[in-house]
Amino acid sequence: MTAGVTRFETASIVKVNILAALLLRQTPPGKALSSATRQQAEAMIVSSDNDAAVALWQKIDGSRGLTAANRTLGLRETKANKHWGTTTTTAADQIRLLTALTSSKGPLTPQDRTFVMGLMKKVIPEQRWGVTAAREPGNSVYVKNGWDTADADGGRWLVNSIGRIVEARHDWLIAVLSDHHVSQKAGIDVVEKAAKFVLKEMRAATTGDDPTQG
Q: Which single residue of 25, 56, 104, 171 could bond 213 by disulfide (Cβ 3.0 to 4.6 Å)?
């Protein structure tokens, strides 16, 4: 789901984009990452480790590498900046990224798609907020969140959440981006309310549909 094309700083949700860029650089496609690189990728996604993100950012040649990868991934509204966390994006582009990471028609191999989703499924409990609030019992949930204060916004918080919820009849891809919050908690509350409301409406609107990805 997505609404609008407003640009937001990514904060740590860009780490999923960095990992996708890293996997696209493997030769031949689908080649397994080295043990050390794999550990860095896991730390970057599962616990949002910034040192691991810096290391992998350098491996993909920083903003130039991310920009090149995003052409392959189909992203049109994401602008990579020198510091990865200040990359800007839109909710629409994050849905394009999630689609590339889950669709058999995307540029990544099945093994790479499984690797990324496996890490997003293992995100540590204290970071499993955001779009996960829209899950129902029995759903499979994949998530990556981003949060930071913005100097340009008087130190207010930006809070983002991207992910996937797989249930019996639908495979939902969700991106909620937000900023101008007085606290991280306030931002999380807004993101979770948005995710729950929209997915509730989408479920109601698609009752009886054939299984699909939305």
A: 171
CA-wise closest residue to 95 among 77, 113, 108, 110 = 77
pLDDT digits (tens, 9 = 90+) for 113-143: 999 999 999 999 999 999 999 999 999 999 9
Radius of gyration in angstroms for the set of CA atoms belonging to the chain, rounded to a whole number: 16
130: left (phi over 0), alpha (psi -120 to 50) or beta: left
Sign of CA dihedral 144, 147, 153, 156: positive
Enter the tokens of residue 179. 């900023």
From CA 163, how far away is CA 10, in angstroms rounded?
14
Q: What is the CATH number of domain 8-206?
A: 3.40.710.10
Comparing CA positions, the residue from 95, 170, 173 lying closest to residue 138 is: 170
Tell me which long-range contacts 78-81 makes (C-beta under 8 A, separation of at least 24): 78/10, 78/17, 79/7
- As a whole number, mean pLDDT of residues 95-104 equals 98
**pLDDT tens digits, 184-212:** 999 999 999 999 999 999 999 988 665 55
Q: Do the beta carbons of residue 24 and residue 107 sit within 8 Å?
A: yes
pLDDT over 50 at 2, yes or no: no
Rounded to an integer, what distance in angstroms lies between the CA atom of residue 19 and that of residue 33? Answer: 11
- Residue 92: the pLDDT is 96
Do 120 and 12 contact (CB within 8 A), yes or no? no
